[in-house]
Amino acid sequence: MKKIEAKATELVEKINNQIIAGDKSLTLSDTQKEQIKKIHTERIVGLRKLGKEASKEDKKAFNKKYYQKIYKEILSKKQLKARRKGKQKN
Predict the structure, then answer these.
(1) Of the candidates 2, 15, 31, 34, which lies 20 to 30 Å from 71 by C-alpha distance?
(2) What's the average model confidence in pLDDT over 58-84?
(3) pTM score, two decimals?
(4) Contact 19/28 with Cβ under 8 angstroms?
């Protein structure tokens, strides 16, 4: 479980860094970080349960559901724009 949490934290930081690269004033709040970490943890555990037999399409659809939660429910529209802008810089 420690590995999963570490990976989830790493993914939260990646999103945060992309947002910061787009606009320094729109960093993730602690609450947002916790919510995103929880979603990533659920996603990683779920992917492991799907197993290696799961097709690429299944995994893609599974991931999409979780990423939609992050991008539609947790991040603000401004943060999404900043993330896109920050992602293009890298």
Answers:
(1) 2
(2) 96
(3) 0.89
(4) yes
